[in-house]
Amino acid sequence: MNDQPTKRDRARTLAQVERDADGCRRCDLYKHATQTVFGAGPVGAKLMLVGEQPGDQEDKAGEPFVGPAGTLLREALVEAGIPIAAVYLTNAVKHFKWKPAGKRRLHERPNREEILACRLWFDDEVRLVKPGAIIALGATAASVVLGSGPKVLRDRGKLFPSPLAPIVTLTVHPSSILRAPDAAARATARRLFVRDLAAIAKRQFPGR
Question: Which terminal residue of the chain has fewer beta carbons within 10 Å of its beta carbon, N or C?
Fold first, then answer.
């Protein structure tokens, strides 16, 4: 008898984890967030992309990577030859941390305790999705996926041995591209970002 869970079973279990995460009170971030923003994408995804946390628009929509950085990311995936339907998108922290600035809500970086409080949701996602590759986007995600040793700018594009997936690497977060000081800098940063994604596309999506 085959005791391995089917894709349908794993997907149902992932849905249960998402329901549990909806009621998460493991840190205080839920008090000021609109909702939990869980990951989205298929079980068995060839690629999992991990960001830091949802932003203002993600917090309101309840979906990851739907704001300006998400738009840039999705465009870069297309340019790199990666089908979005084969990608699982998530964040290391599932609630939006922010501070008020007039009528705006400005991003604040989550602290170590908040990151650790959310770790179990990320571990469940990896266990149930079983991605073929993981790319950490930015320093916070890199610390969760790879620990404190790797540095984004120094090590971007390098492959690291990991129990999480057969291929694990890191690159910049797309929001850093949007923060570049001028159009030329943004164009260069975007080109390098697409290059990093394309290197994984050659491994995970050959022939595209």
Answer: N
Q: How far apart are CA 84 and CA 106, in angstroms?
A: 28
Q: String of b and e for 173-205 (b: at least 16 CB within 10 Å)? A: bbbbbeeeeeeeebeebbeebbebbbbbbeebb
Token pair 């404190």: residue: 148
pLDDT tens, position by position, 165-182: 999 999 999 999 999 999
Assessment of whether the complete model's pTM goes beyond 0.85: yes
Give how far the C-alpha of residue 186 lies from the chain's centroid of Cα atoms, to the nearest Å: 21
CA distance 43 to 129: 4
**Average of pLDDT values for 180-198?**
98
- For the chain, what's the residue count? 208
